[in-house]
């Protein structure tokens, strides 16, 4: 190389480095400039605003506004909320082992964790909490009561509660303890040869729980398996790998993360020998299956290890990392996208390119890329996972939604259990359902159907456009017909309403296991999965069809 070429080459390299350095310095200057502007603005508002302001609240609003422009998963976690955040990721907290809900201006126990302090002390689902440690909580919020019930392990809480069927207030002494919520609240057999595992979360230990459940099911005769990931929002990436490893052999790629920080990019592979690589497997998914759930389901699909049954998943292909901040706070930042073994990313929404209303846009079908599973089946990116066997889940009627949301079913279950002490059978007879209908009649149930909402909109539009008098008689007849049908809704939708009642009764008799056992009896998605597993030809065809 000539001296002239060497000098020119060196100058080019120096020029590129200087340009990069200038760009970095410009970026740092812009950051410093905007932070200084914000600090000045913050001081001026605090000093001169006409009313008193709360500096911490102002900061939270400002930070939330900034992060909202990115995606829903990048969040600021103030110091006071760090413990609560840790609970959601680990599944562990110190308390009494109960969930509470606000219903009818009261706070009720809506779930108990079997074997933990509240359950051992004798509290029951449906009890209304009225006092904690001499503090009346009649008008308290769920947040306040939750904080009162939590505390250091081995500290006591005195709880007074009202229970349907008891005239007097009941007293309970509960010793707080470390609570670990199971990721697998239930597993069992749906028939003589098909096992079922309901995986609710991906906190610490999820993989081990699925492993133990599978071993136990096989020991009692399971020849095939249903893994239910419906409504599972995801959780720890490491546990998605561990759950996958139950069915996929050692050293197989599970997921790859790719982001801006190159050294953070990683390939996650299975670390151990699998528990069972051959048992026929159906994974249940729906629109609420997200993140770690989609990793597990996607890996099972990409390796043709089992079939996906149900509905299309949520489409969350983003990875979050938690970073520490000053004064004990934290920030959860989206740092990467994940890619499953076929190479596809299943993120559904684009938070960078938004529509005219500022909403994130979905990837259109025309821009989705085609990928192949190990057996050559075609799959696509950009919109969650599509099931191999599509089954529509249950859709609730307006009356069922009203009965649940307004706690009519909750309260009737309390009444039923109090009048049927010791009865473990939660299947309601026709006579008992008739009693429920009569009780609802006395409660003067009022609700609005979709048809009524559309009729009211039609009336408003017709009045605006001066057509109302022309169609008035037709609308009145329609309203009358809808009213008559509403009176029959509790009969028309009996099966759906009855199932929800039976789930609540089972919850009081057998806690979470009971509610799940009742829910899966006539679940159409489970029935479809079971049918496919019981037919080897159909099952194998689903896994190999191009």
TrEMBL record:
Single GO term (MF): serine-type peptidase activity
Domain PDZ: from-to ranges: 82-150
NCBIfam families documented for this protein: prc (TIGR00225)
Biological classification of the source: Bacteria, Pseudomonadati, Bacteroidota, Cytophagia, Cytophagales
Family: Belongs to the peptidase S41A family.
PANTHER family xref list: CARBOXY-TERMINAL PROCESSING PROTEASE CTPA (PTHR32060:SF30), TAIL-SPECIFIC PROTEASE (PTHR32060)
Pfam families reported in the protein's UniProt record: PDZ, Peptidase_S41
Cellular-component GO terms for this entry: outer membrane-bounded periplasmic space
GO biological process: proteolysis; signal transduction
Statement: the UniProt record of this protein carries the keyword Hydrolase: yes
Name of the protein in question: S41 family peptidase
InterPro entries: ClpP/crotonase-like_dom_sf (IPR029045), PDZ (IPR001478), PDZ_sf (IPR036034), Peptidase_S41A (IPR004447), Tail-specific_protease (IPR005151)
Signal peptide: none
Keyword line: Hydrolase, Protease, Serine protease
């Amino acid at each position: 190389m000539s001296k002239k070429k060497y000098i020119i080459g060196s100058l080019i390299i120096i020029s590129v480095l200087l340009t990069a350095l200038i760009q970095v310095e410009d970026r740092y200057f812009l950051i410093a400039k905007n932070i200084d502007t914000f600090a000045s603005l913050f001081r001026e508002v605090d000093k001169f605003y006409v009313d008193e302001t709360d500096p911490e609240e102002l900061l939270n609003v400002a930070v939330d506004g900034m992060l909202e422009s990115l995606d829903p998963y990048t969040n600021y976690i103030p110091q006071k909320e760090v413990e609560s955040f840790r609970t959601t990721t680990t599944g562990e907290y110190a308390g009494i082992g109960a969930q509470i809900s606000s219903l009818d201006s009261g706070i009720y126990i809506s779930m108990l964790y079997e074997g933990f302090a509240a359950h051992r002390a004798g509290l029951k689902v449906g009890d209304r909490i009225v006092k904690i440690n001499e503090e009346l909580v009649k008008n308290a919020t769920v947040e306040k009561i939750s904080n009162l019930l939590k505390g250091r392990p081995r500290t006591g809480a005195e709880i007074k509660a009202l229970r349907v069927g008891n005239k007097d207030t009941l007293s309970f002494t509960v010793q707080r303890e470390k609570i670990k919520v199971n990721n697998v609240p239930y597993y069992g057999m749906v028939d003589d040869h098909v096992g079922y595992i309901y995986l609710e979360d991906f906190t610490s230990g999820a993989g081990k729980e699925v492993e133990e459940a599978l071993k136990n099911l096989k020991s009692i005769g399971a020849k095939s398996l249903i893994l239910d990931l419906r409504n599972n929002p995801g959780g720890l990436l490491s546990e998605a790998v561990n759950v996958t490893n139950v069915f996929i052999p050692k050293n197989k790629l599970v997921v790859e993360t790719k982001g801006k920080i190159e050294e953070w990019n990683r390939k996650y592979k299975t670390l151990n020998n699998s528990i069972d690589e051959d048992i026929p497997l159906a994974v249940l998914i729906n629109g609420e299956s997200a993140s770690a759930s989609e990793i597990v389901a996607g890996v099972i699909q990409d390796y043709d290890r089992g079939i996906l049954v149900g509905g299309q998943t949520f489409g969350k292909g983003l990875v979050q990392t938690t970073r520490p901040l000053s004064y004990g706070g934290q920030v959860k930042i989206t740092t990467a996208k994940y890619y499953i073994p076929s190479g596809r990313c299943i993120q559904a929404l684009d938070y960078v390119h938004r529509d005219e209303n500022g909403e994130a846009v979905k990837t259109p079908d025309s821009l989705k890329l085609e990928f192949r599973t190990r057996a050559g089946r075609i799959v696509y990116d950009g919109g969650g996972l599509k099931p191999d066997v599509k089954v529509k889940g249950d859709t609730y009627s307006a009356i069922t939604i009203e009965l649940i949301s307004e706690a009519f079913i909750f309260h009737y279950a309390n009444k039923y259990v109090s009048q049927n002490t010791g009865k473990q059978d939660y299947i309601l007879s026709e006579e008992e359902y008739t009693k429920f209908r009569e009780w609802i009649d006395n409660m003067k149930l009022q609700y609005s159907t979709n048809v009524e909402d559309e009729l009211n909109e039609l009336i408003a539009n017709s009045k605006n456009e001066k057509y109302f008098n022309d169609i008035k008689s037709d609308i009145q007849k329609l309203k009358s017909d809808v009213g008559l049908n509403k009176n029959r809704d509790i009969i028309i939708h009996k099966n759906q309403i009855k199932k929800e009642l039976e789930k609540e009764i089972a919850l009081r008799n057998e806690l979470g296991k009971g509610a799940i056992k009742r829910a899966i009896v006539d679940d159409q998605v489970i029935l479809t999965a079971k049918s496919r597993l019981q037919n080897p030809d159909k099952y194998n065809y689903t896994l190999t069809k191009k």
